[in-house]
Every structure is written in C-alpha cells, then in structure tokens.
Amino acid sequence: MKKPEVAIVMGSVSDLETMQGAIDILKEFRVPIMAKVLSAHRTPKELEAFVVAMDHLGVKAFIAGAGGAAALPGVIASLTAVPVLGVPIETKSLKGLDSLLSIVQMPAGIPVATFAIGKSGAKNAALFAVALLSQASKTASGRLKRFRKKQAQAVKATRLSV
Predict the structure, then answer these.
(1) Does residue 35 form part of some domain?
(2) Count of domains forming the chain
(3) Is 24 annotated as a binding residue?
C-alpha cells in the first residue's frame, strides 16, 4: 500500500454514509488515502496518535467529517500544520447547521476550510484536496482538468425538450 496523501477521519461510523463520497472521489483520482473513525470526545488520545502518525508519513491534507458539536476538524487542526478540510455532517435535530457553525467558527490561528453540509460537502472537500495535491503533481493536475472538462461537456450536452 502506498503512503497516504490524504487522511479521512470521521467521528462515528454513521458518518461513513456522508464521507463515502470523499472516499470515492479520492479513489477515482487514485489518491492514496487512510480512513479512520476517531472521536475528538470519545478517543482523544487515539486521535492525537493518528494525526501525529499521519504527519510523520507526510500526509498532505486531512478531511474531517463531524456532526453536532463537531469538534473533530478543529482538534485535528490544533495538532497539525497540514490543511484540514471540515465536512459538517447533517444531524437530525438541527439538520447540520450545528455542525456547520461548530466547524466554521474556529478561533483565529487554527484554520479549518469548511465545506457544505452533507454529501456534497464531502465530495467538494475531496476535490479541494485533489486541487491542493495538483499544485505539486502534474498527474493530479491533469486528472483534475480532465474531470472538470468532462463536467463541462456534460452540461453542454444537456438538451431540454420544453
């Protein structure tokens, strides 16, 4: 297995339904990943050990999905200088608004790039990670350009019969 370039962390196994979109995108782009379920609240020591291990392996970005109080992305950002991309998980009680506000309101000095609530946020976080990687990789850059060109072609090919 190649060393991971992106680490995906989610606070609960139930978050996998949302975070699977990020996993799928990164696999499509052939980005080596490591995915784990670790909680900022329930497994803080294990989370810290994982972040330190990923730093030592040279991971280029973390994608962290969390719901509710959503401390996970911020805790990861406090443990590393590597970019952290936060994905708010939709919650039953507040539809993910609680998650979004928890992630986006990081104190100055501990940034977390924050994406949309739910599955589209997970996919966009993965695409953003690919864009970060493309700064140092012509291969990743070419794949991203082809992906975007394919998206544009699909829109152009759309025909409405009204």
Answers:
(1) yes
(2) 1
(3) no
